[in-house]
Amino acid sequence: MLIPVIGLEIHLQLKTKSKMFCACPAHDVGASPNTNVCAICLGNPGTLPVPNEQAIRFGTMMGLALNCTIAAHSKFDRKNYFYPDLPKAYQISQYDLPIATNGYLEVEIPDSDRPLVRFGITRAHLEEDAAKNTHGVEGKTLVDYNRGGTPLIEIVTEPDFKNAKEAKAFLQELQRIARYLDISNADMEKGNMRCDANISMREVDADGQIIGARFNPKTEVKNMNSFRHVERALEFEIKRQTKLWEDGTPVTVSTTRGWNDVKGITEAQRSKEDAADYRYFPEPDIPPLNLTALAEELKLHMPELPAARRARFVEEYGLKPLDAAQMCDDPAVADFAEHTFSELQEWLGSQEGDLDWETEKPKMARLVSGWLLSKLGGLMMERSIDIRICKITPENFAEFITLIATTKLNGTAGLKVLNAMLDAGASPTHLMEDLKLGTMEDAGALADIIDRALASNPEEVLRYKAGEEKLLPFFVGLIMKETQGTADPGVTRNMLLVKLKS
Ligand code: ADP
Ligand code: ZN
Ligand code: MG
């Protein structure tokens, strides 16, 4: 039997103010091409690179998050290659002494026979990005050196992945970690997270024991700009390589292929350079780094990471694991939820009677999940807004949840209030009153409306009384319409049942 062997190499653009070795702005997206450049990042002779302290801190934080050993002795090296995106004709990178080595990341794999997998991290190192080439402009290639010299961290994994889904889940978790650490936007579509996937096949027997070579020559797949691309490209490569094995012509030399998302295939590129081709040698202008003290300092200030936060959300707020995962996907949404829950805890504490947090927890978890993830999430998606620019504060959102929890607001009216909150950013209680959307608490008025509705639909009443009970929702609907959604559906139903019996 053949099984895939997959290892990933990921580049993350670090969110520093300045470039890796000079003072030029690093991520000035609006800047005209070739304006954020200087003698250092253009590689003029006689200039001296100075490592960016923030990039080193960010890189070390990622190393710690990936459970790596942080180097007591690390250095930079020159990786030589000749290409227009590299004005010095070498890239300052790290070869044999990277900042972080020998770590791991545990990732949950949904719907899998390996639900939690520990993937080994070989190493993580710092380097500078190359310039950006734009091919095909009037048959020419244009080069923008603004990107040249911006800081990157490259993370290399062990070949521990068994399928495309595992690779995708790992990349998504890595993205979350980068965002929680606030060291990179880690957006694959925007190119600030890039992934190369290495893949080969291995022969195993029925017990999963390796037959033949432990590792076979691999194919490195490049040019994938989304998680979906990575997944599709790997699935394609697994099929392609399996077929080659079955035809008796397995891959015999390591090569590089590019993913063509339009055609849905990988295409041969060049054959792969090995390290010798790059003639690595130590960067003589930068002294070695001892990161031990920095790592000790950073350990004290590491933020809570996504996995820990998800587990705590389940434990502390009684959320379902899937809801907790969705909330913790974006740290800003998680902060919003956390703030909402603490407001709700305070509110429950201030209520008279026997409402307490532990008993109300499941209900609150259900309401916050439903209203935050599906309803508010949906409304924000429709308007293409993000929680960061949403006008609803967690205080107002918590107040909204209390109105729902105490049935002062029903679901239909709730959605209208939420919409108005998004527009106005005002308190839900005020909006509810302004819009006259509070639940009809006047039972007498509701009874009158029901009487009138029944009187004007005599035929349906007769059919109901003759046993057609499925007409009940029709009557409830009439009342909801008549009261513009302000009647409580439960109360309406009960009143209708009584009136239709008589
Ligand atoms: P290279 O010499 O091409 O740089 P490395 O040994 O540095 O190769 O590994 C680069 C990446 O490829 C790592 O993520 C590693 O896990 C993965 N890898 C190495 N060998 C294989 C293989 N035979 N099949 C699949 N992936 C591999
Ligand atoms: Zn510069
Ligand atoms: Mg390598």
From TrEMBL:
It comes from the Bacteria. The keyword Transit peptide does not apply. It catalyses: L-aspartyl-tRNA(Asn) + L-glutamine + ATP + H2O = L-asparaginyl-tRNA(Asn) + L-glutamate + ADP + phosphate + 2 H(+); L-glutamyl-tRNA(Gln) + L-glutamine + ATP + H2O = L-glutaminyl-tRNA(Gln) + L-glutamate + ADP + phosphate + H(+). Its EC number is 6.3.5.-. GO terms for biological process: translation. Keywords: ATP-binding, Ligase, Nucleotide-binding, Protein biosynthesis. SMART domains: GatB_Yqey (SM00845). Allows the formation of correctly charged Asn-tRNA(Asn) or Gln-tRNA(Gln) through the transamidation of misacylated Asp-tRNA(Asn) or Glu-tRNA(Gln) in organisms which lack either or both of asparaginyl-tRNA or glutaminyl-tRNA synthetases. The reaction takes place in the presence of glutamine and ATP through an activated phospho-Asp-tRNA(Asn) or phospho-Glu-tRNA(Gln). Belongs to the GatB/GatE family. GatB subfamily. Heterotrimer of A, B and C subunits. Residues 343-500 form the Asn/Gln amidotransferase domain. This is Aspartyl/glutamyl-tRNA(Asn/Gln) amidotransferase subunit B. It comes from Candidatus Uhrbacteria bacterium RIFOXYB2_FULL_45_11. The keyword Protein biosynthesis applies. It holds the Pfam family GatB_Yqey. The gene is gatB. One of its GO terms (molecular function) is glutaminyl-tRNA synthase (glutamine-hydrolyzing) activity. Transmembrane segments: none annotated. Gene3D superfamilies: 1.10.10.410, GatB domain, N-terminal subdomain.
